[in-house]
Amino acid sequence: MKFDTFIASVRPFGPVVVGFTVGLTFSLLSVRWVTTPFDYAAAEDAASSQEGREKVVGSPAFMSTGANGNSDDFRPRIVAYEPAVKNKTKEPFRAKYISTELGIRERLFVGVLTSKNTINTLGVAVNHTIRQHLDSVVFFTGMHNHKLPHGFPVVNHGYEHLTQAMFQTVKHILRHYINEYDWFYFTQDDTYMQADRIKGLVSHLSVNQMLYMGKPVEFVDKQIQARYCHGGFGYLMSRSLLLHLKLFLGNCENSFLHARPDEWLGRCVVDYTNTSCVSEYEGLEYHHYESGESVDYSKEAEQFEYVLTVHPVSDPEHMYRLHKLFTHIELQKTYKEIEKLQAEIKNLSEVAYEGKRSMVWPIGINPSFRPENHRAVLWWDYFTEDLIYNCPDGSPRCELHGIDRMDVEDVIGVAVEEMNRKYKPIIHLNKQQLVNGYRRFDPCRGMEYILDLQLEVINQKGRNLSVVKRVHLLRPLSRVEMIATLLVRETVTVHIILPITSQHTDHISSFLDAYAKNAIEKSENAILTVLFIYDHFEAQEVNQHDIFSAVKNQIKSYERKFLDLKIPWISVETEGPSQIRYMDVISKQHPVDTLFFITTVQTNISSEFLSRCRMNTVRNRQVFFPIPLQDWNQDIACHKQAVPKMAHLNKDTDMFNSSSWNEACVYNSDYVAARALLASDVQEKEDLLENFVISDMFVRYSRLHVFRAVEPSLHQKCSKQDWAASVTDVQQRN
């Protein structure tokens, strides 16, 4: 029984054992047994023949140790170390831009031929009309010792002869621009060109073609069958054509000098590239218009729908009138495209899941803002023709004035005009009065209006009727202001200006503590200057009783505590705490490149805000008026409850006070420039300075960008404010 079990368990391994045995047997049978005796004599002969050469370990010559063997071969030898010479590999050149490394070129280069008699008139007009639409425009002239106008690039090649000037222009382009652009367009300063249409033409052309495109003109020599492009109407040349012409340009330098410059270039192109000027290529046409002495462009507006260039242009006024005409034509095209897209959106909305309900009015404008909670609901402001029931100062009702009145009048006028356009000639509408008006600002759409207008309806028979019509209008967000980001220095010293009156002495201790903690201990690059403001009575009693003596002692204690700290202070006597008056004193004592941060004693200064003050204030470009985060009155916000430790950015304990304009970051040079304009306006009424704040001065008397933004790191404590003065400031700004 046990034997059967053993056989059953071993049986699966039987084929393996048999196969291994058979394979080993056949392997042994196939081996060829050869016995070769080692010949020591031959080995010694081989060793002697290899004297002076390296011995190979394991070879018979290496194992020779007989009496005839050379034992010196086995002695160690010192080999001098020679370090391997490192090949100086040339570092690969990496282009500054990836487009250069990949061989991607710009699309279009425009060269304008001008002269010393026209560069300051027609040249400037050409630059004004095309510069904003083209990336690369260069003017070429050959005038000597002539003052060049500023604002656009001019290449002075020094040749006044027209043909030589044309040769030098092409030579300069081949030397400096041929590897950067695909297409080259040549024109004259007495030619108006529609830049956007030229760009559109180039975008549809292949860069590999030998193309010479413009207005074809026959050569003076009638035997030449080809044509050249008239220079007055401009002409387009491909990069491939210019590269081929580059090889033979020297041959053309002294040829055909009697010809016109455009004819000279055309003759050179025809002779050496066998390319003739064409006005049509692959369905694309080069449209041009020849202007007369007295042409009424308004009657011939339809002819300019596809025109690329107009020649000749007699004066800059003529150039600007043409630019206005072409701009109007392009604007009408844009309106038609918008109407076409709106019709397509309207048709597609019918097959949408929600049908026409998915279509948003006006068509093509973003849908309305959807609030996430009741706190984010946008409210409507009610107004009439004379009053508005939501005022900037928080009062329930105030008169419409300034920009608000202009806005309401404009909206009512547009509403009546659009209704007359819709219903004419059947009826005519006249406004009688505004019954109700509502408006709100939607951050996704713009300013929305709902108007209930009482209108007088007059039909074609002269009968009239008074009706009330509700209309809905939208002023969309269309004009977006792009602010260029300029390079600013993050290490510039911030001069903190702190004005103090007798009402602020109780808060100076907390301000100095925050300044020491956030600026001094962190070695912040900032200097605090305290400005003590006395009225007339306080200034007379300063020797007997100085109301700021305690504050001055605190400043001295901080200077003793921090040895490197110096807090300068200035005493000023003034009838009222006017920002303009005390900043006049500060400005005269600092260089023009000084960065000021004007603040109040309720403010807690942080290093984060000082960094943003440096970044957001750009000299000769921008001033910064931050919106501080101000605490609510703790007695009201935390009634009979403990004040939370982390009360920062909490809707129940603080808010961004948009009515505060006391904090400002400005450069001294910008302040001096705006102050000079203000002085010329109020030189006979100095009392007006009492009602002026710095923000008003920059808005009215400076072209600098006034940047206004919320600043969470600029924290202020709640304080009693002169609300009457605040209301006056808001009304003045409006």
Automatic annotation (TrEMBL):
Gene3D superfamilies recorded: 3.90.550.50
A family per Pfam: CHGN
Top-level class of the enzyme under EC nomenclature: transferase
Molecular function as annotated in GO: glucuronosyl-N-acetylgalactosaminyl-proteoglycan 4-beta-N-acetylgalactosaminyltransferase activity
Keyword Endoplasmic reticulum belongs to the record: no
Listed transmembrane segments: 12-34
Family from the record: Belongs to the chondroitin N-acetylgalactosaminyltransferase family.
Protein name as annotated: Hexosyltransferase
